[in-house]
Amino acid sequence: MNKYIRVLCGLMASILLFGAIQAQASEWTGGIVGISDDAQVATEYYSEDLLLPLDEPEEIVALNPDGKLDIAAKSVVLMEVSTGQILYENNSHEKLPPASITKIMSLLLIFEAIDQGKLGLDNVITASEHACSLGGSQIWLEPGETMTVDELLKASVIASANDATVALAETVAGSEEAFVALMNQKAQQLGLKDTHFVNCHGLDVEGHYTSAHDVAVMSCELIKHDLVKKYSTVWMDSLRGGKTSLVNTNKLVRFYDGCTGLKTGTTSQAGSCVAATAMRDGMEIVAVVMGAASSKDRFNGARKLLDYGFANWSKVDVKVDESLLKNVPVKGGLKKDVAIRAEGNSSILVAKGRQNDVVQNITLAEMVEAPVEQGQQLGQVHLMLDDEEVGIIPILAVESVGKMTFKAAYIRLLAVLFRL
Fold first, then answer.
1. Where in the chain is the domain with CATH 2.60.410.10?
2. Class of domain 319-406
3. Per-residue model confidence as pLDDT tens digits over 349-359
4. SS3 per residue for the chain
5. pLDDT at position 25, please?
6. Annotated catalytic sites, by residue?
């Protein structure tokens, strides 16, 4: 009898567990935005892995005896967004196929066009034959179909839709070819030496490459456009009145605290790639993983990089010691000296626990010759940590000081005489 009871209890437990798993799966796939059963799910190389939580993190992320993090990828880099400072890198300049993280540069140009007033979120775009002819991740645009810029950005950022990205690119530059020329021009302006684009979506093609370092730089530029976070932080959404469902290709958005984006990429040549951004305690960092063998490896690698950055670095706002700012004598001026000020405060990165070890050293002109312009730089505050300079704050003239001329001297003399 006891044997049958144990079997029955085991069967009931299995049924309850199966039901719990189904309920959780339902939440992951539809509970957030109410994805209907007949909706087309648009996402880059859709797989169940995107719906599963990350592996349990290591309690302490530390470098191995070789001074490296154990990450299964060809190339990685970790960079702080506001300063561009590299916090960790391994093989970061290798030229590799980028897959859809190509869209980081495409989106940068699109958001610049929006900022410049050349493109509005409510503008309606008509899909071209070319935009609709692309394979890979897509929202299945039909030639002549119309969508707003806002809708196409949802598709491009959340679901990495190639057709949506090309439709936006054609609107900005007239053709994909002209847009790609702008992408390469922007890469030169940003000083990217490992990058050459052939298309704006990232499908594999000869001569289309970038590096983890260059992806980090362009990611830093893109994430400075706050509008991108309206899309990059969304886990699920939909288009066409719910007929097309969008699942974010970057599952860190759902499962990593502070994640702000940004973009994934997957092709047969590129493997699994991701540029992941996150912010905690006022510090935003970007982790780039390229050439991972699996989606699991890229997300675990990105999470390890982000954890390492937040565990070991702090962003510090340094306020200049006002006692260092003495007036600078002016030679041959209408005033004997000029007041000075520091040009704001400086945000610097320091190793955790060393925030109070930053020293301020000032270099200041002993004398300046008139005329002096308001805002003219007269010195610098050097922020030092041990023997390393970690930041510079310029020192500027508060006001203008004119040059003493014969006429000015004569007028001053008359004023003095009349006062007598």
1. 319-406
2. mainly beta
3. 999 989 889 99
4. CHHHHHHHHHHHHHHHHHHHHHHHHHHHHHHCCCCCCCCEEECCCCCHHHHCCCCCCCCCCCCCCCCCCCCCCCEEEEEECCCCCEEEEECCCCCECCHHHHHHHHHHHHHHHHHCCCCCCCCEEECCHHHHCCCCCCCCCCCCCEEEHHHHHHHHHHCCCHHHHHHHHHHHHCCHHHHHHHHHHHHHHCCCCCCECCCCCCCCCCCCEECHHHHHHHHHHHHCCHHHHHHHCCCEEEEHHHCEEEECCCCHHHHCCCEEEEEEEEECCCEEEEEEEEEECCEEEEEEEEEECCHHHHHHHHHHHHHHHHHHEEEEEECCCHHHCCCEEEECECCCEECEEECCCEEEEEECCCHHHCEEEEEECCCEECCECCCCEEEEEEEEECCEEEEEEEEEECCCECECCHHHHHHHHHHHHHHC
5. 36
6. 100, 103, 160
